[in-house]
Write a structure and sequence with these properties.
The chain is an alpha/beta fold and 272 residues long. The protein folds into two domains: 210 residues, NAD(P)-binding Rossmann-like Domain (Rossmann fold, 3-Layer(aba) Sandwich), CATH 3.40.50; 35 residues, no CATH class. It is built from eight helices and seven strands; from the N terminus they run E-H-E-H-E-H-E-H-E-H-E-H-H-H-E. The longest helix is centred in the middle third of the chain and has 29 residues. The protein is globular and about 55 Å long.
């Protein structure tokens, strides 16, 4: 990810501990690096230990302006198996001030054609595992009178996206779960917010574009350009641009922002 930037956001995350899900690539990885750059201790969590080790090595090699006490680590867990996730958490140090819930989206396709198993799998990975993490981490957050829970979901909670039937459904469930949590936890100094990425340069976006190209008979570049043109910015987001919003919401400076959806989509979503 390279050297630290010349100008930090100065979000005062020193001595804050962050757990970042899906942090071996894309938005999750970018968020982990930006949190580290802002001074946080970062724990990565994903299912592929080899990739986790590679990202950890990158973090340790970065030239951040950080304290000697700053720590990086990782946990291995497969979010398709909630029982496994619970066991991993039972054996971990759960002194986290920040939780970033971020999991790869379900496969695309019309909702009418979706199998029941697809809904069950997505519900498990996105909502059940988010809930397990929150239940495990919130007790410590309460003792600190400080907690930040940021869920990376989708602009589909404001405007359903064509061809992403299962994702549209499950993302909406996560958004309402999040709002309910925000109402319950706000009095303890814990905020719960959602970041809604638009089309972002990730492996998932490449999969979506390839699938659409195959179905329509158009080239990958044609499909990509049409998607870019759907946003006033006429381009895809960089993962780091989404991470900027996540890390701000994780900071003390966002202390009175709670229970909201923040689109980071270049203006593509038509609703306010």
């Amino acid at each position: 990810m390279g050297r630290a930037r010349d100008g930090l956001m100065n979000l005062q995350l020193k001595n804050k501990n962050a757990l970042v899900c899906g942090s071996t690539q894309g938005i999750g990885k970018a968020t982990a690096f930006l949190l580290a750059e802002e001074g946080a201790n970062v724990t990565l969590i994903a299912r592929n230990e080899e990739k986790l080790q590679a990202v950890l090595a990158e973090l340790n090699a970065c030239q951040f302006e950080r304290s000697r006490e700053q720590r990086y680590s990782y946990l291995v867990a497969d979010f398709s198996n909630p029982i496994e996730l619970k066991k991993v958490l039972e054996n971990a140090d759960l002194h986290f001030h920040i939780l970033v819930n971020n999991t790869g989206g379900p496969a695309g396709g019309p909702i009418f054609d979706a199998k029941i198993e697809e809904f069950e799998s997505a519900f498990t990975q996105h909502l059940k595992c988010n809930h397990i993490l929150v239940q495990a981490l919130v007790p410590f957050m309460k003792t600190q009178c400080f907690g930040r829970i940021i869920n990376v979901i989708s602009t589909s909670v404001k405007q359903p996206l064509d061809g992403l039937g299962v994702s549209n459904t499950i993302r909406g469930a996560v958004a309402n779960w999040s709002k309910t949590l925000a109402n319950e936890l706000g009095e303890f100094g814990i905020t719960v917010n959602n970041v809604l990425p638009g089309a972002t340069q990730t492996e998932r976006l490449n999969q979506i574009l390839n699938n659409k190209a195959e179905k329509t008979g158009k080239s990958f570049d044609e499909v990509a350009q049409a998607m870019k043109n759907s946003a006033p910015a006429k381009r895809f987001a960089k993962p780091q641009e989404v991470a900027n919003a996540i890390v701000f919401l994780a900071s003390e400076k966002a202390s009175f922002i709670n229970g909201i959806n923040v689109p980071v989509d270049g203006g593509r979503t038509k609703s306010l």
